[in-house]
Design a protein that fits this description.
The complex is a heterodimer of chains A (402) and B (337). With 402 residues, chain A is α/β, with parallel strands linked by helices. Helix content of chain A is 51%, strand content 13%. Classes of the chains: A alpha/beta (402), B alpha/beta (337).
């Protein structure tokens, strides 16, 4: 039980941190109030969420077909598409495209986090800049994200001021406006110096090969628009059949991520091109001339076979459940593995295949069920947790769960 | 349980599971010791409708002292795994460490079972005829399900059903939310032709309350804490509130958000307190704070686990002005039974 002992120590250290508790309780309060307002203002969201649940249920059942379709569409758009069976395959494809000695600007990606993408690129002699403010803080702190949409949720402004003071060599006060401006200054030129921009994606339409990017900071627009090459790593569970369905998934995602509407939603389907001179199509006008999309399986198609645990693949990654979890409220992402809280246990088992960690996380869940009340696609986490515990207790191999 | 399972299941839960399997109660007490609370109530043992008391209330004092032991250990350098592991191991050798400790710290009596006595008086006062199986009452085994021991759970479910049928039971009035959910929703999945009607105490009370005059001895502000199993599993959110609202003298005050299906768990769910005793206490304090903020003088809840947690929360907060009572106790006072 050594993993459990270490894990429990981490969780308890987090639970004893007064600063973290303050940061989290502020975040929970504002999440609930923002989301309630957003849902009140756009009440159709609730019905749309039910539709999205059906869209996801169906799409998860036909991931393999959808990925073929999306690859064809992207190739037709003159992008390049790849299917990575495993995390290792994904890393190899990316290394093949990136090479070494490159400057990379990167948008926040939980899928990247899942396979240790940044570390991998750095090990191969590349310089990687996380451009999402929260993720930038995490990178500089040498920490790991503690929430899927707000990775630095556990870091109070005083700690950010201290960190940025160290980076800039100036004595910066804990003034949030100033700290944001500092990050902007530190990253501004990197977008235009970068050889490659990298990102994840929130949802993918298989028919047109269109990827949706939801954000507020504008860092994804710059990372995916300014450098000459854009590489996307996306999990196969993000695929839905059509552009119209993808839009619905996106709207429900941002609304349950507590936004009436985000500042930016980008739709990208291929490389930048122009036909303005003699109608000759030329690639790389103002945006990237190369557009690569890697669809990663890494256990997802196997997970989709399990009648109960497949629900984990419906997750839109809005992060709503985390704000409702009483344990997350005192431990943040320490209750979890690569993904967090109850649903994180299923990802630990099926995707990261870390049985002991999965057990530790699974037995941390209260099975209280409030996450399910919040979830736009009604993922029954208590049901998944009990099933996962059964598989662990019966010594089933994880996956293919036999 | 296989050895591999025991490696992955935290020791606290292995201990509970062993108790259920070997002694038919979560604490591993000897047969019938849970039934003492009903000794002077003269309830018939054989009846078509039975009151199912469950482990939670019947073993409250034992559970409280065990939890106090593990919490203390969990905060020390040793951690809770050691005593839980040792407790399980020693039991096999015939030494009951937790039991010995319990005898030292238990203040005597079984005050935790008061809600059961009150529930019986309330049902009786409403003219409901029912029996109580006492030392024949089986453990529903719900925790086996939550621990992930489905084979053991299914075996226990068969035994429970067989026993209840052989005793001629047709209807069950449950009071512990988890037992009620197990008997109503989980056991039927493991037993073909399951035909027992299961109702929860609050449903039965509401059905029979009629226009009866209910008055609390004094004017009081009360808040209600939903147990996870009662609200989110059994969907009994309005029933307890309707009962409370029907009692004159009681003003129900509630948090804006954390009530009903959005109620915050007390931190005692699914055996959690046996794995993370200290964290469980932190969650208890957090939930208690939310409830105290309503300005209520009494926190009413309806689950033995929640009662223990919230009482401990008040103790940790050093708040002696607020009391935790079970809905059954409130009803008994309002009916003067």
């Amino acid at each position: 039980m050594s993993i459990f002992t270490d894990y429990k120590k981490e969780i308890m250290d987090a639970a004893h941190s007064e600063r973290m508790r303050i940061a989290l309780s502020r975040a929970i309060k504002s999440y609930r109030s923002n989301t309630n307002n957003a849902l009140k203002k756009f009440p159709h969201t609730i019905k749309m969420a039910e539709e999205v649940k059906e869209i996801k249920e169906k799409a998860i059942g036909e991931m393999e077909k959808l990925v073929q379709q999306a690859c064809e569409a992207i190739e037709e758009n003159k992008g390049k598409a790849y299917i990575a069976k495993t995390a290792e395959d994904a890393l190899n494809i990316i290394t093949g495209l990136v090479g070494t000695g490159k400057l990379i600007v990167k948008g926040k990606s939980m899928t990247g986090e899942e396979i240790g993408l940044r570390e991998h690129l750095e090990e191969h002699g590349n310089q990687v800049y996380e451009t999402d403010l929260g993720e930038f803080i995490i990178q500089k702190l040498n920490s790991r994200p503690m929430h899927i949409t707000a990775p630095a949720i556990h870091v109070p402004k005083e700690d950010v001021a201290q960190l940025f003071s160290k980076i800039t060599g100036q004595d910066l006060p804990p003034d949030i406006t100033l700290l944001v401006a500092t990050a902007r200054k530190l990253l501004r030129e990197k977008y235009f110096q970068a050889d490659i921009g990298m990102s994840g994606a929130n949802v993918v339409a298989a028919d047109t090969g269109t990827l949706f990017f939801i954000e507020n900071e504008g860092n994804i627009r710059l990372s995916t628009g300014a450098p000459p090459v854009h590489i996307v790593l996306v999990g196969m569970e993000k695929l839905v059949p059509t552009l119209g369905e993808a839009y619905k998934v996106a709207e429900v995602t941002w609304r349950y991520a507590n936004y009436t509407v985000p500042s930016y939603v980008s739709l990208i389907s291929g490389p930048s091109k122009t036909g303005d001179i003699e109608k000759v199509i030329t690639y790389g006008a103002h945006g990237p001339r190369e557009f690569h999309v890697i669809f990663m399986d890494a256990g997802r198609t196997e997970l989709a076979q399990h009648p109960i645990l497949r629900q984990a693949l419906y997750c839109l990654r809005c992060g709503g459940c985390l704000y409702e979890c009483p344990i997350f409220a005192v431990t943040a992402g320490y209750f979890g593995d690569k993904y967090f809280a109850g649903v994180g246990a299923v990802w630990a088992a099926a995707i990261s295949r870390n049985t002991e960690k999965a057990a530790a996380v699974a037995y941390t869940c209260l099975t209280c069920g409030r996450c399910k009340i919040r979830c736009p696609v009604q993922i029954d986490t208590p049901e998944m947790i009990v099933e996962l515990r059964r598989l662990l207790a019966e010594g089933a191999s994880l996956p293919p769960f036999q | 349980m296989t050895k591999k399972a025991k490696d992955l299941i935290p020791p606290g839960l292995v201990y509970i599971a062993d108790n259920i399997i070997s002694k038919h109660n979560i604490l591993g007490e000897s047969k019938g010791s849970g039934a003492k609370w009903a000794k002077d109530l003269n309830l018939p043992k054989w009846a078509e409708t039975i009151f199912f008391a469950g482990c939670g209330y019947q073993y409250t004092s034992g559970l409280e002292s065990l939890s106090s032991l593990t919490r203390r250990m969990d905060k020390s350098v040793l951690g809770a795994e050691l005593p839980m592991g040792i407790a399980g191991f020693q039991k096999k050798l015939g030494i009951d460490l937790a039991g010995m400790y319990r005898k030292v710290v238990t203040k005597g009596g079984d005050s935790g079972a008061q809600p059961l006595r009150d529930a019986v008086r309330v049902l009786d006062g409403l003219g409901i005829k029912f029996g109580y199986l006492a030392d024949e009452e089986p453990c529903c085994g719900g925790l086996l399900h939550y621990i992930g021991l489905q084979q053991e759970f299914a075996r226990n479910a068969q035994e429970v059903y067989g026993k209840l049928k052989s005793l001629g039971v047709k209807r069950i009035i449950g009071i512990v939310p988890s037992c009620t959910y197990t008997l109503r929703n989980l056991i039927p999945k493991c037993v073909e032709g399951y035909d027992l009607e299961v109702k929860h105490f609050s449903e039965v009370v509401l059905e029979n309350i009629g226009s009866r005059e209910l008055r609390f001895p004094q004017e009081v502000k009360v808040t209600y804490h939903d147990s996870c199993q009662l609200a989110r599993y059994l969907g009994l959110i309005e029933e307890p509130r309707r009962i409370l609202r029907a009692i004159k003298g009681i003003e129900l005050v509630e948090a804006d958000w954390t009530k009903g299906e959005w109620a915050t768990c007390c931190g005692g769910g699914g055996g959690f307190e046996a794995v993370f005793p200290e964290l469980s206490q932190i969650l208890a304090v957090n939930r208690t704070e939310e409830l105290v903020e309503t300005g209520a003088e009494i926190i009413v809840t309806h689950c033995p686990g929640c009662i223990m947690q919230l009482k401990d929360g008040l103790k940790e907060l050093k708040n002696a002005n607020v009391e935790v009572l079970d809905l059954a106790q409130i009803m008994a006072m309002a009916m003067e039974v």
